[in-house]
């Protein structure tokens, strides 16, 4: 309850304070809108840009796939994002028609993070991009052909993928098998791989998705193969709306109400019930051990009970990760994204070097020139050595000196080649690092715009 002012002047003070607060709030809102306009103006996200999400278990080859297409150091991208988010962003130019952004998503078999937290992160990215009208071309799901069977974690990744997409979007999913080269050392390896592909077509695995127009492809590890897989999605007309995007953005469902959330929640509830039954049994065992005055058994059962209770608590916390709406995530992440954008802009400014591209091209030209001179000198040297065997004795001394001079020239050129190659490699690394920073900045700006919008309109959402 608000206390009434005891004096008229106190009433005036309260009225003035309320007016000041209203003016401050209006000013803050105006500044936020202006800030967003500036942010939108600085957003270098081309109209021809499309996004493809990569999914699959840990070790399925996502990083290698991305490196082939983008010529980016995927390791650098992950290191830069390790303190923020596990989703990596990389890009490349597709046939001079599209800038393609690849989202490297974490697998649902991460021993360091619960699946519910990973789902929340992936769902947020996909929903926010959809809300910002960014074109999603589809999803590439990678699976190791070397796996002798579809493991529980692989099946879990697959089921979550199916629920994220929804059956209507299966035609925008490429199911790609990787690690085929590993089978080359095995007798009849390729035939074994083909047999496993047939097994993957069974209804309990990829069968339903293939029936609804998902595409199965072999990825042999080459750039041409990766490009072919990407083309299956980009060359299709239009974009795709995933189940998770429609449910969280259009229907305003919380994550636990979505199909993907319900699937994960079902698993969590089943696991929790299992541990609760175990706890009930252990309580009975403890009571019996107490009656029998068996101190050692009491201690063992008590430790097992505490371990089971800890697992129940963890499962409950994981379940709570799902009980969140898109606007709640946006509100929670708003400050983080603003800080991240500022940090990325500072990092780019610190590494800004307008002459870098010119220097890189100059080094590339030098490298080609030295390689050409080196090749010519080596060819000339071989000719002179062959000639030396044919000439008269009186010419041998002069030709020997000429050969020695050529070999000296070759040694000098080889040294120059090494130096220029190292400089070129360093400049290329710096360029790739700036590219990774730029990619992350573009996406963080997009997500920040989305977060700010939801933060201001939060009262209209759950």
- Can you count the helices? 14
Alpha-beta classification: alpha/beta
Low-confidence stretches: 1-43, 76-85, 455-462
The helicity comes to 55-70%
Inertia-based shape: globular
At the first level of CATH, what is the class of the largest domain?
Alpha Beta
Largest sheet: 6 strands, mixed
Number of domains: 3
Would you give an account of this structure?
The chain has 462 residues and is an alpha/beta fold. Helix content is 66%, strand content 9%. The chain has helices at 8-41, 62-70, 74-81, 115-131, 152-165, 189-200, 203-211, 223-234, 243-250, 259-291, 295-320, 326-350, 356-388, 393-456, and strands at 50-56, 88-94, 98-104, 135-144, 173-178, 215-218. It has a six-stranded mixed β-sheet with strand order 2-3-1-4-5-6, with helices on both faces. The longest helix is centred in the C-terminal third of the chain and has 64 residues, at 393-456.
Keywords:
disordered C terminus, Rossmann fold, 462 residues, alpha/beta, six-stranded mixed β-sheet, 66% helix, 14 helices, globular
What topology emerges from the helices and strands here?
Layout: H1 8-41, E1 50-56, H2 62-70, H3 74-81, E2 88-94, E3 98-104, H4 115-131, E4 135-144, H5 152-165, E5 173-178, H6 189-200, H7 203-211, E6 215-218, H8 223-234, H9 243-250, H10 259-291, H11 295-320, H12 326-350, H13 356-388, H14 393-456
Parallel strand pairs: 1-3, 1-4, 4-5, 5-6
Antiparallel strand pairs: 2-3
Helix pairs in contact: 1-14, 4-9, 4-14, 5-10, 10-11, 12-14, 13-14
Pfam families: MMR_HSR1
Coiled coil: 265-325, 360-423
GO molecular function, one term: GTP binding
